Every structure is written in structure tokens, then in C-alpha cells.
């Protein structure tokens, strides 16, 4: 200790020369003990400084980061702020294009300034977006989360997340703002592309795997948006949420509960929205009562960007920024992001006036400091130099430029694998695959028609760097190789002539280009219609944050173009590069084939081309239903009986292709269902098994999906809901015996009294290839009393598989 000044008592501002050492540096102590020791030595202003971030951008010249001038906030004075410390640095790499190595140098120099300015030498925690890859210039652009859901392959998504995490950590980033656990309730919502799907079990399992992968790399994962954001009325961004407590408990919350219980996640982000009049940022029963007291979450709750200020400006539940800060801090929000606003001077004034208990500040700061201790940021030997600069610590920016690659061959191979497993074959009349043994059978002339035929960024989601940030820097190269669908098809079908026309702008109303496109179609052996979305932000795209749709008709005149192509005499294969499902009109029944890819990332067009040729067997399944009619929203497969087609309404929400649907290039038989016991007590379990055999001529993937149907319950239930699944890759003639142990807990739901219960009575377990394709049904009975369950209940069925030795 270089000085013995009681700043906590005097309230005097700290000075960098008063550098203190203490137990918080002792790595043999638990993080909690280190945090407590540091907390006891801090002034109130030093404490509140740990609760804010500053939005910055790394310097492409290697200098310190500069505060980002956002139109929603006034500039931050770092000279005034940093002597007290700083909690977080917001998106140093994801704010403007910067060479990764130079950006790492800029961040390191900034951390040196931060640690040198505050008397404890505490660095800031740096966070970035990582929804579909590290959102920085030159980093791999992976498929969006909706594609993760389409894989029905959590382990693969975990590999993807671990790769993203390693890249983040390599340049000095500590926290990633992903995954999104919002369950799709209305596909018109612009952020559907950011979600994993419309089923809470699928969302929970895939998101939990992502968190485990990111955390395995030493990066703090962030669950968002807690909770209910995706259930906004009419699918409008930030619109009020009108769902009841039971829908919230049984549909919205289970993925978060699963991730908190099973993944080791260390951060949660509150949602922007209000539910029944209570904004999430001020919802103490949600952020503290449920998340912490019931589920046992011990990490930090961070604000969605500007979300605390929105309590005043948008929600109107706070009359001042000080009141907003008090409400959020009291509810359980620990860190204000993206930059200091309500937790700055407004919070200081509220504390001085006695409107906010200081104990609330201590509670939040302790959580922040525990996390910094876990990350090594309180270690005496902590260095601001990230791993990528360890061997070139003294190199200047020009020597470093180009030395760090965040889009490696290994990353691209992983991106390609995820994209391939996520492609969903919705329809096929036998036209696909186009050439199982090229060039035999390959079309001589392919007309590639549509606005996504020759657009490099058509594979990218809203939170990919080239879309999210790159659009503001048109003179900067993309930083990635993004083969267009035309280029991918040319490489996949070298013996075919490929002619191309856009037909129309993606969201334009002009049909003048139809003539050229139809002429190409008439003269071709096959038409590939390249349709879908353009990702963007707040109206600059047809999909993405703030890009909500009035209905689910293809944007612009794409449906008219598609119908005109169907009227030609040429077979039409529809390929969709999109961020949400769209109604396809006649094409759902008349197209030769329909291939769906949800913004499949930088390797996406190659994945689509390889599925079209048959080099890769399609194995994706729909994570969201594809509507038959564009106006049949909101509608998901998780509907009660009255939510399905009926004689009392002429509006039919029956999908064209249901949740879980996906075709293959082979065939499977399901047989020999055996139920070991048809009755079990409400605290018991059922065991059943069946055989799945590949009866086709090539390798393929079947996804066994287990749905629960409760014929009679004390409250209205969905007709069916997914409770488990298993992905099986089978060679021709290969058979697998699948044994499933299903605990009665999976039949639980929120009863009339607001508690989760398991009721006695009849059940059906429907084993299907999708929600609309049931193959086997087990009729079972639960016996005994109604049983109340809680957050310790079992969340998964057990699965065992055995390859049958007697397969022909």
C-alpha cells in the first residue's frame, strides 16, 4: 500500500498516485472474498463508476479508444470519469472498422490508461456483440441463431460458440452479448432472425449449448432479452407485451431457466419491453425474485442499451433519470449499458438525497467485482496485453496490421458445417438433387432469377459486422469473402450454363425487370428463384432490429415474380435467404422444390449449392412454422385447440410447413414402438423405445421429435409441445433403436393457482418427424395426486441409442 488515506470516510476523490494493494489481489482467496475486500476500500463514487460502461471505438491507428458519439447520448469526459474507475468498455471492436491487431493494441493502451488512472488499478471489462460471430471487421460471419435452431444440433452450436469465444478472448474481450433466448410468438417481429425458434425447449437446449461453448473460452455469456421481448403486440419492436402470467411462465421463461440451471452463464440482459404495464428493467420480482432468489443466478444483470433511461423516456414510470436509476438498481439491474447516463450524475444525486439506499450500490458493485475477479482482472499480475499481441508487445500499429486473422480456415469450415446442417428442404417433387453424380443429370442451362441471385450480403443477418456497422462505412472493404449464390452455383455446376437476372429489387414495387427474368426462365432447363430478405436496422432492411413486417408476404413484388416464374413451362426451385419464414403462395404446392436458409453466413451460398446438387444431404428442420397465408399471424405451432383451424372462423392459421419439418434425400421407417409401462405416478417416469431405419439409397439424417399431448387438463394447453428430440445420422439400410426415458416432470404446466403442477390423467407421447408428421403414438396414464414441482424439476428426457446388429 503506497498511501493510507481513508477515501471511503472522507469522500475525497482518489488519485492515481494513491495506488493501493490488498487482499483483492490474492488469487488464493475466493472471488467473493476478494470482491468484499475491495468493496470495503472504495469510495461511493468509485463504486458507482464500476456500474457503468462507456461506448467507445478502437483507433485504427493504434491509439486509445475514443468515446462513440451517439445521437442518444451526450459526450463522455474520460478525464473526469476515469480517476474513479470504469466498469465496462462498450464495443471497442464493433463500433467502426478496425484491423483486429491494431484494435487489440488500441484496447490494450486504453486499459493501461484506465488502470493507471484509478488508485486500485482496476481494468474495465470489454464487451462485444457475438450473435452470429464476433461482430468486428474481418471476423467470421456465422449463420444466425435461427439457423442454429434449424440444425437441431446443440453440440454443433456449442462448437461454434467456443470458436467465437476464443476469438473474442484473443484480442482482449471479456463478455459477449449473446445468445438470444426470446421464443418467437409472431414472425412479423423484425428480430426473428436473432432467435432460435418458436419452441421453448428447442430454444433452451440450443441456447444452453451456446452459453457453455462461449463460457468454455473464458468469455462471459449474456442471456437476452429477459423476458418477453418477442411477445410484443403485432410483432412491433418495443411494443407493449400483453401476455398473461401463464404464457410467460410456460413459454417465455423456460429457456432462461434451463440456461441458468445448466450452462454456467454469468450475465443476463433485461428486455426493453413492459409486460402488463411493468417494464423488465424495473421488475424486481423478475430480476431478483425469480432470477436470483428462486433460480439461484449469481452473475450480473446488465441493461439493454439505453434501457434504464427508457423507464423515463419511453415507459413513463420514472419522472427523472434519477428515479429511473433508482427503479432499475432496486429491481436488480447491476450495470448500465452502453454508456454512463442514469447511473452517473442522476444516481449520485439520488444517493446524496437519500432516495437510493447505498446498500443497493454495494450489492451491484459486489457482483461486478466478483466477475472481474473471476476473469483475472483483479490479479496483481494482470496485463492489458491480449494473447494475440503477446509475442509482439512492442510492435507498432503498422507492423501489427494484418497479422491477426479472425476468419481462419478452421472458422470457415465450422461456419460451412453449421450452414449445411441448417439448410431446410421444405418441398421436393423429385427434382432435387440436381446431379447426384455430376455432370450426369446436371441441367444444361440454369436461370438464376431473383433479387438475391448476385448479392454478397444476402447471407448475413442484422448483427453481422458488414450489415450492422459496415453500411456506415461504404468505402471500407467487407473484410470477408462472401460468394454470391451465382458464384456458388457456378462452382457447384461447372458443366451448366448459368444465366442471371434480378427480376426486381428486393423490396421494390417495380415490375419492369420481369420481362428479362421470364425470358431467361423460358429458355432454361431449370429456374432457381433466389428470393428472401435484406438484413438491416430500423427500417433499412426487410429483416432485423426495427424492421418489422405488416404481414408475411415476401417483400416487394417477389411473390408476383415467383408466381410469374411458376407460370412458365420450366421447373422452379425456390431458394430463400431470409431472416423469417414467409408465405409462398402457390409455390408451397407447385414449385419443383423449396429450399429455406435462414441467413446462413459467409459459407451459406456454398451450403445451399451443395444441397441443391446433392453433394450434401439436407438435414435441417424448421425452427419456425412457414405460414400458408401471409396474414395468419400471430400463430405458432404451440397453439391451443381454438388457435387451430375451426368452423367458427374463416381465418385458417394452418401452416404450409409445420415446426420441425424438413425433407431428406432418403427415406426412413419408424417401427416397433414398445412402452415398458403404460402407467406411472405423477412423480415417476415412462420408458419407451422405437426403431428408426434408413430405407433409402443414401446417407441421411432423421430427427426424432417427441411431442406431449395432454387431452384433458385443468387449464387450456397447447395441442402439443416438444419435450425432446434426437438427431440420427444413418447410412443406407442402417437401423437404430432409440430408447427414451420421459419423466412425469415434462408434463408439468402452470396450474390455476399459479404453481407448476403435474396432474394425473391420460397423456399421449407423439413421436414424429415434425409437429405435423406423427409416426408413432404412445398412450400413457399418470396416476396419483396432483404434484407441485419447482425449479429443481427434471427438464430433459433420457436418450439411449443402439445401432442394431441385425440391420440388412
TrEMBL record:
<dbReference type="InterPro" id="IPR036962">
    <property type="entry name" value="Glyco_hydro_3_N_sf"/>
</dbReference>
<dbReference type="InterPro" id="IPR017853">
    <property type="entry name" value="GH"/>
</dbReference>
<comment type="similarity">
    <text>Belongs to the glycosyl hydrolase 3 family.</text>
</comment>
<dbReference type="InterPro" id="IPR002772">
    <property type="entry name" value="Glyco_hydro_3_C"/>
</dbReference>
<feature type="region of interest" description="Disordered">
    <location>
        <begin position="1"/>
        <end position="28"/>
    </location>
</feature>
<dbReference type="InterPro" id="IPR001764">
    <property type="entry name" value="Glyco_hydro_3_N"/>
</dbReference>
<dbReference type="Pfam" id="PF01915">
    <property type="entry name" value="Glyco_hydro_3_C"/>
</dbReference>
<protein>
    <submittedName>
        <fullName>Glycosyl hydrolase</fullName>
    </submittedName>
</protein>
<keyword id="KW-0378">Hydrolase</keyword>
<dbReference type="GO" id="GO:0016787">
    <property type="term" value="F:hydrolase activity"/>
</dbReference>
<dbReference type="Pfam" id="PF14310">
    <property type="entry name" value="Fn3-like"/>
</dbReference>
<dbReference type="InterPro" id="IPR036881">
    <property type="entry name" value="Glyco_hydro_3_C_sf"/>
</dbReference>
<dbReference type="InterPro" id="IPR026891">
    <property type="entry name" value="Fn3-like"/>
</dbReference>
<dbReference type="Pfam" id="PF00933">
    <property type="entry name" value="Glyco_hydro_3"/>
</dbReference>
<dbReference type="InterPro" id="IPR013783">
    <property type="entry name" value="Ig-like_fold"/>
</dbReference>
<dbReference type="InterPro" id="IPR050288">
    <property type="entry name" value="Cellulose_deg_GH3"/>
</dbReference>
<feature type="domain" description="Fibronectin type III-like">
    <location>
        <begin position="702"/>
        <end position="771"/>
    </location>
</feature>
Amino acid at each position: 500500500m503506497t498511501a493510507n488515506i481513508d477515501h471511503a470516510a472522507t469522500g475525497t476523490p482518489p488519485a492515481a498516485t494513491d495506488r493501493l494493494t490488498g487482499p483483492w489481489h490474492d488469487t488464493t482467496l475466493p472471488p467473493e472474498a476478494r470482491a468484499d475486500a475491495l468493496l470495503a476500500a472504495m469510495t461511493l463514487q468509485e463504486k458507482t463508476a464500476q456500474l457503468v460502461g462507456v461506448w467507445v471505438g478502437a483507433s485504427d491507428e493504434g491509439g486509445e479508444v475514443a468515446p462513440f458519439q451517439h445521437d442518444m447520448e451526450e459526450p463522455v469526459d474520460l478525464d473526469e470519469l476515469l480517476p474513479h474507475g470504469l466498469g465496462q468498455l462498450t464495443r471497442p471492436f464493433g463500433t467502426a472498422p478496425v484491423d483486429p491487431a491494431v484494435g487489440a493494441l488500441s484496447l490494450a493502451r486504453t486499459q493501461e490508461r484506465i488502470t493507471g488512472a484509478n488508485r486500485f488499478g482496476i481494468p474495465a471489462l470489454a464487451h462485444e456483440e457475438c450473435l452470429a460471430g464476433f461482430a468486428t471487421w474481418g471476423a467470421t460471419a456465422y449463420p444466425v441463431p435461427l439457423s442454429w435452431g434449424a440444425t437441431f444440433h446443440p453440440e454443433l452450436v456449442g462448437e461454434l460458440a467456443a470458436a467465437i469465444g476464443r476469438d473474442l478472448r484473443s484480442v482482449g474481450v471479456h463478455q459477449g452479448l449473446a445468445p438470444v433466448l426470446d421464443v418467437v410468438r409472431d414472425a412479423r417481429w423484425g428480430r426473428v432472425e436473432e432467435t432460435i425458434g418458436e419452441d421453448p425447449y428447442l430454444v433452451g437446449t440450443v441456447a444452453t449449448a451456446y452459453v457453455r461453448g462461449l463460457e468454455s473460452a473464458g468469455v462471459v455469456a449474456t442471456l437476452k432479452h429477459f423476458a418477453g421481448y418477442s411477445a410484443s403486440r403485432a410483432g412491433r419492436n418495443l411494443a407493449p407485451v400483453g401476455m398473461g402470467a401463464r404464457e410467460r411462465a410456460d413459454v417465455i421463461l423456460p429457456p432462461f431457466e434451463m440456461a441458468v440451471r445448466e450452462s454456467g452463464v454469468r450475465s443476463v440482459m433485461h428486455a426493453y419491453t413492459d409486460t402488463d404495464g411493468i417494464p423488465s428493467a424495473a421488475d424486481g420480482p423478475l430480476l431478483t425474485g425469480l432470477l436470483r432468489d428462486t433460480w439461484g443466478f449469481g452473475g450480473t444483470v446488465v441493461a439493454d442499451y439505453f434501457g434504464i433511461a427508457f423507464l423515463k423516456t419511453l415507459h413513463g414510470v420514472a419522472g427523472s433519470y434519477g428515479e429511473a436509476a433508482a427503479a432499475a438498481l432496486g429491481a436488480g439491474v447491476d450495470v448500465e449499458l452502453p454508456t454512463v447516463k442514469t447511473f452517473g450524475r442522476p444516481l449520485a444525486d439520488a444517493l446524496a438525497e437519500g432516495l437510493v439506499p447505498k446498500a443497493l450500490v454495494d450489492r451491484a458493485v459486489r457482483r461486478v467485482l466478483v466477475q472481474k475477479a473471476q476473469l483475472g482482472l483483479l490479479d496483481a499480475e494482470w496485463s492489458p496485453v491480449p494473447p494475440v499481441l503477446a509475442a509482439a508487445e512492442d510492435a507498432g500499429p503498422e507492423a501489427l496490421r494484418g497479422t491477426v486473422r479472425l476468419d481462419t480456415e478452421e472458422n470457415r469450415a465450422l461456419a460451412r458445417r453449421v450452414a449445411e446442417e441448417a439448410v431446410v428442404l421444405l418441398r421436393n417433387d423429385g427434382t432435387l438433387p440436381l446431379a447426384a453424380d455430376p455432370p450426369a443429370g446436371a441441367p444444361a442451362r440454369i436461370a438464376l432469377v431473383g433479387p438475391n441471385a448476385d448479392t454478397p450480403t444476402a447471407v448475413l443477418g442484422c448483427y453481422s459486422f458488414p450489415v450492422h456497422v459496415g453500411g456506415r462505412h461504404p468505402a471500407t472493404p467487407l473484410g470477408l469473402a462472401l460468394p454470391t449464390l451465382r458464384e456458388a452455383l457456378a462452382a457447384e455446376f461447372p458443366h451448366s450454363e448459368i444465366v442471371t437476372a434480378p427480376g426486381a429489387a428486393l423490396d421494390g414495387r417495380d415490375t419492369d425487370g420481369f420481362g428479362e427474368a421470364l425470358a431467361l426462365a423460358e429458355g432454361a432447363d431449370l429456374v432457381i428463384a433466389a428470393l428472401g430478405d435484406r438484413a438491416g436496422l430500423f427500417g433499412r432492411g426487410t429483416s432485423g432490429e426495427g424492421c418489422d413486417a405488416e404481414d408475411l408476404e415476401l417483400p416487394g413484388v417477389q411473390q408476383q415474380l415467383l408466381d410469374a416464374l411458376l407460370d412458365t413451362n420450366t421447373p422452379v426451385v425456390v431458394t430463400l435467404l431470409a431472416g423469417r419464414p414467409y408465405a409462398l403462395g402457390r409455390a408451397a404446392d407447385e414449385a419443383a422444390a423449396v429450399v429455406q436458409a435462414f441467413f446462413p453466413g459467409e459459407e451459406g451460398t456454398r451450403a445451399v449449392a451443395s444441397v441443391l446438387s446433392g453433394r450434401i444431404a439436407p438435414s435441417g428442420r424448421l425452427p419456425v412454422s412457414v405460414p400458408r397465408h401471409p396474414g395468419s399471424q400471430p400463430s405458432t405451432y404451440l397453439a391451443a385447440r381454438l388457435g387451430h383451424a375451426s368452423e367458427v372462423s374463416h381465418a385458417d392459421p394452418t401452416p404450409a410447413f409445420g415446426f420441425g419439418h424438413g425433407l431428406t434425400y432418403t427415406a426412413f421407417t419408424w417401427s416397433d414402438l414398445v412402452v415398458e409401462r403404460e402407467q406411472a405416478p405423477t412423480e415417476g417416469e415412462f420408458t419407451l423405445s422405437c426403431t428408426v431405419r434408413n430405407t433409402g439409397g443414401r446417407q441421411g439424417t432423421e430427427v426424432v421429435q417427441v411431442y406431449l399431448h395432454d387431452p384433458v387438463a385443468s387449464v387450456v394447453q397447447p395441442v402439443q409441445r416438444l419435450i425432446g428430440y434426437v438427431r440420427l445420422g444413418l447410412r443406407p439400410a442402417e437401423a437404430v433403436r432409440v430408447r427414451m426415458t420421459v419423466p412425469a416432470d415434462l408434463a408439468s404446466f402452470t396450474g390455476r393457482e399459479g404453481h407448476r403442477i403435474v396432474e394425473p390423467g391420460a397423456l399421449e407421447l407423439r413421436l414424429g418427424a415434425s409437429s405435423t408428421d406423427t409416426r408413432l403414438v404412445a398412450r400413457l396414464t399418470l396416476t396419483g395426486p396432483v404434484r407441485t414441482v419447482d425449479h429443481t424439476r427434471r427438464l430433459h428426457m433420457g436418450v439411449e441409442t443402439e445401432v442394431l446388429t441385425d440391420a440388412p
